[in-house]
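Question: Now follow the chain.
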Amino acid sequence: MARFRRDRKTDRPSSKAPRGPGPKPRREPSSKAARERRRPPLVVRLLVMLLALAAMVAFAAVLAKLTLQPSPASEALTHNNTHPGRSLRAYLDQPELRDAVKQVGGNILLGIPFGVLLPLLVPGTRGILRVTLLTATAMLLVEVVQGMFITGRAFDIDDVILNTSGALIGYLLLGRRMSRAVHPRRRDRKAEA
């Protein structure tokens, strides 16, 4: 008695008899499997990671220069801010819109490289929650050092929020896609069986 199989393309019974102990029929690759097959060669992946590492080092140097350089002239003007939104209101209340855009936009732009480069360098950090937590932790550390040890600089929780927002923007626009292209996830072998 012949058994009927379903044709996967049309979801109708197929009149082909099942094969015996011969080669298995070839499966149509799913879109996920097709993406995994397009995994870049190891040399390309290493080159991209090396470039990302160089960019992260350059970003760290710029971040240190912008945030950890003493500013004795502004020592009397600085004050710590632990209340979210207080500095943002002060920025937006400034008479010059350009100054507000510079402060808010600069802090957002400062976080974008972190959201793009972090998942490229460490694929395990991919994901909105992980990027958020790592960025917030790193930027919080920078702000604490600023507030405690740097003359003319202060701790500002709004800077942490804006930097983290920038990292999320960078991750959602570029970081996630670039990380998936360079480090595609492998299929679970148990799911194949």
Notes: The helical segments are 31-37, 42-67, 86-92, 97-121, 128-149, 157-182, 189-192.
